[in-house]
Every structure is written in C-alpha cells, then in structure tokens.
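Run log // design_07
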C-alpha cells in the first residue's frame, strides 16, 4: 500500500505553485530582500527600508523583521529605488536601483519580482574600526513580542551544537504563540531538512509557503525534501517555483535541471542546466558540469559528456571517485571514435 505521506503535499503543492505563478497577473509584483551586517554577516533587524520611484517620490517604508527580511508588494512594472535608512544606527546608508520588467513563463504569464540584498558597512564617523555592535533601533514587529523572543532565543541556540535541540523547541514555542510566524516556521522546516528528517520538514515548509507564496527558500527546501523522498514530480514543481521566484539562483536552476533529467525531460533539462552554466561563467560550479555530463551521457552525446567531465575535474580536481570519472571519460571518448 502506498504510504499516504508520500502524497501528503502533491495536490496542495501544485496549487500553491500555481498561485505563486499567478501573483504577478494580479498586480502583486514585489521587491523582497535581506539586510545584513557585512562585518559579522548577520541579519539586521528593525532597520528601515524605503521604496521610491524613479523620480525619488517615496512610495513606502518598512522595517526589517527578526531575520533581516523586507518586502514591498503590489507593485507595477517600472524602475524603483530601494534605500536602507541608517538613522539611529552605526551603519552607512545604502541604496540600489531595481528594475521590474517581467519574465515570460510560457506564452502568457508575466512574473515581475526582484530580490535585492544589502550588506551594510559601519560608518567610520560613528564607530571605530573594530566596532562589532549592532544597530540600535525601536523594536516594532507585527509578530507578538513573546513569539519574537523565542525566535531570537532559537537562533542563538541553533548556533551551538549542544543546544540545537533546544533551539528546535524554542522555534516550536514561537510558532505556538503565533501560528502564522513565517520566519520561525520556515526555519524549523529548514532545520529538519538539514537533519535529513524530510518527513517532519514537509508540514512546516508547506505552512511556510502558504503564509508566503513567494518564499524562495521554502520552495527550494520542499524540492530537496521531495527529491530525497523520491517524490520527483513534486520535487520538479517545487524547484520550478524556486527558479521562477529567483531566476538568478544557479543552485535552484541546477537542481531543477537535475530533476528534469531524472524525469526524462531532457530538452528542458538542458535548457535549465545551460542557463545555470551561463550564470556561473565567472565562477564555475562543478555540480553544473556534473549534471550536464550526466544528461549528455544519458542522451548519447558522448563527446559533450566527456568535455563536461573534464571541466568538472578542473574545478574539482580531487573528487573521491577520481579514478572512476577518469575511466568514464576514456570510455566516452572511445565511443566517439
């Protein structure tokens, strides 16, 4: 008998995916991102992020949440300016231009979404070179303070291996206090994925993408979970959604290309993997070339498979199965002659 868990999220995931695709058609275009402390590489919470149009008229202002995330939704296509306001902090003010122009999916759907991250530097006029402090700001969250406190406690605990289980419990307490707590729900699901506990991860990840249908990490983590549970159709949908939300993620696109190959969708797999290859041209990733080699070998394109494996070895010269890969390259070359 088929384990019902294997199909726990099949139909639901597909509906969430379609909802994600259709958001732009409902004038729900968005700009999302994260704000980090460049010195410590930690998220900066409770700092203002401002949205302005191309003539510098302010359209909105938000504070980053506990994970450093901000989001502006309901936007039309156009040029925008995103500025992190540094008043009341030790950081320098930073701004970036963002263009929402739309990405075609199929024949008709247009997605308008942009992701932009900030890595804030300290203002030397305010702090010394060795300052490691965090910005001071007024605490303001939509999430109840009690839930926020458990979430912050969890983040600290999860950094220490001996307290990681306590961190999981703290996340659960935060969710208990505020069931729609996106960051806590997503983090709990991701932590289960990191522990290879994919069954337990699924309910939290599905809840996370229900709360935030543009959750890149949520869809990506579902893709990983479904793949490890050998639910390849669901994995395909999740990875595809991740690539739609963030079309510049070479990792998501590589995973999408991989699952398409497994499902026998070779043409689409090559399109995805070649896109990942183009995105990583300046910083080649061994996994991209490995997946291309597997695809070309599967489809009888032996020369191209051997070429990709040789590039793979240039990027990763000492893999654990080095001799097997070298033998495979020789075998593929012989088939070409």
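design_07 sequence
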């Amino acid at each position: 008998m088929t384990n019902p868990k294997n199909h726990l999220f099949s139909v639901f995931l597909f509906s969430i995916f379609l909802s994600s695709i259709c958001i732009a058609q409902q004038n729900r275009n968005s700009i999302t991102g994260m704000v980090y402390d460049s010195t410590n590489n930690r998220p900066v919470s409770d700092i203002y992020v401002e949205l302005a149009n191309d003539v510098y008229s302010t359209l909105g202002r938000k504070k980053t949440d506990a994970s450093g995330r901000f989001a502006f939704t309901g936007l039309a296509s156009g040029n925008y300016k995103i500025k992190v306001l540094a008043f009341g902090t030790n950081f320098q003010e930073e701004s970036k231009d963002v263009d929402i122009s739309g990405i075609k999916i199929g024949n008709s759907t247009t997605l308008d979404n942009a992701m932009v991250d900030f890595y804030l530097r300290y203002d030397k006029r305010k702090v010394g070179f060795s300052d490691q402090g965090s910005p001071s700001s007024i605490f303001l969250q939509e999430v109840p303070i009690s839930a926020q406190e458990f979430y912050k406690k969890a983040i600290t605990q999860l950094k220490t291996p001996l307290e990681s289980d306590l961190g999981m419990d703290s996340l659960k307490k935060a969710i208990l206090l505020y069931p729609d707590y996106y960051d806590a729900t997503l983090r709990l699901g991701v932590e289960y994925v990191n522990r290879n506990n994919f069954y337990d991860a699924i309910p939290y990840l599905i809840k996370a993408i229900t709360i935030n249908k543009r959750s890149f990490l949520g869809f990506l983590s579902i893709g990983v979970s479904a793949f490890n549970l050998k639910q390849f159709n669901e994995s395909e949908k999740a990875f595809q959604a991740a690539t739609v939300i963030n079309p510049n993620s070479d990792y998501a696109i590589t995973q999408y290309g991989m699952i398409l190959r497994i499902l026998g969708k070779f043409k689409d797999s090559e399109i995805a993997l070649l896109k990942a290859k183009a995105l990583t041209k300046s910083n080649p990733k061994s996994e991209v070339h490995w997946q291309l080699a597997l695809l070309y070998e599967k489809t009888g394109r032996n020369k191209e498979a051997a070429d990709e494996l040789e590039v793979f070895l240039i990027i990763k010269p000492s893999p654990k199965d080095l001799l097997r890969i070298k033998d495979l390259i020789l075998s593929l070359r012989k088939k070409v002659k």
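The CA atoms of residues 126 and 213 lie 39 Å apart.
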